[in-house]
Sequence to fold (434 residues):
Amino acid sequence: MNRYEFFLAAMRAGEYKRTAWVIAAFSLIREPEGEWMKNAYPFRIVQTKQGHYFCNPENPQMLLPIEDAPSGEPIFKFKEKVQAKAGDIPNLKKDVLTSYGNLLYNCICLVYPFGDKIDYMEGRIKTENVEAIIAQRLVNTPPVGTERDPTKIYADEHVNYGNATAALAAYTQLCVPGCSYKSMTAPPGIKEFREQLLEKYKDRLHDPATIAAIDKELVDYLKEYLKGDSSMGFLLGDKPFNVVRKKLFLMQGAEATLDDSLDVALVTRSLSEGWDIRDLPVMNTASRSGSFNRGAQTELSGEAVKWQFRASSNLAITGKDCGSRMGNFFFARPGEEAKLLGFTAIEGSVDTFIDESNVGAYMGKRVLLRSPMYCRFPKTDLCEACLGKRLSDTPTSLSIAIADIGNVFMGLFMKAMHSNVLELAQMDVETAFV
Fold:
């Protein structure tokens, strides 16, 4: 039996649910000779100096070879490509060039809880994308003995999905190691490169825009150093680079002040180089500023949330459509379809409800959307057309949605204590205010 045949047979037998099997399949393990006999189960992997074997499913005390398994290496690698055929696993509906990692993920997180209800997912898979599919089809678990609709996803299946996703944490050091030599060291030549940038911009080192430009060049230098490194599967998003590793290995950067000035104070050394005593006043001021934001400004935000709760407590949805012909313009960028779903577009004398079937027609366009700002119902009453489907479906959530504005402020002030990223952004004046 070759590797792929063995992998499929083990998946069909449910071995993806056994942590020990997955670890043995994707890494090199060491166990005493003959240890496998104490727990010989079908498809159990046995690694020896002579090669890789597995327990015969018909007679677990008999070992069979995995014919093309590489000697001295793990049997499988997560990113190793393999040609899979439709039906190899239950949710695979067409032939695809995929990887062993993707096959394993689909078996654990999609096949185990849902069978073939969610089609095979390939590449880097985001939890929010899976959850979006689930949310559209999720219903309550039916009574025992009731026939289940294959087009629906039931609550108990969603619970199994959550448990399966949590189980992936056991394999972090196999597929996304967070530590490597490169990730724990400063890139060679970074000090010299930083000094060149500081000299280039020496007359503008008080300007936040200038510091942001320097930060970007330093972070780009770091990312080039780490390109292809195993830690890049773990270092996702901007914070590991723009905050953590920038301060640790590149430059501590701009620090906050206690006044309202737009100028910043610059600390040019990185934390790995140690503190310069001349920077202590700036660092102390930044620490005090962060503490203040965490305390007094968080208190202010909390007060704003309570005020918004009180101000919106009498809001009510009292009808389908007030007939308003006014709204706010919104520029629909591709990829932001969710921001339009459930709202009503004003198109001349016609109102169009936006759903999955027509949202694509608005991408890249300036759209006039009905808004509760212009609802014509009297007093504090609102209509479903102006409010949008999302809030109309849960009318008791109106105050919570409005109070969330204060929560945004609270989040901003709390983040200030934990360090913010100073960066430049390009504004498109054609669409920024529509």
Q: What stands out?
A: The CA atoms of residues 250 and 319 lie 58 Å apart. The mean pLDDT is 88. Residues 182-274 form one domain.
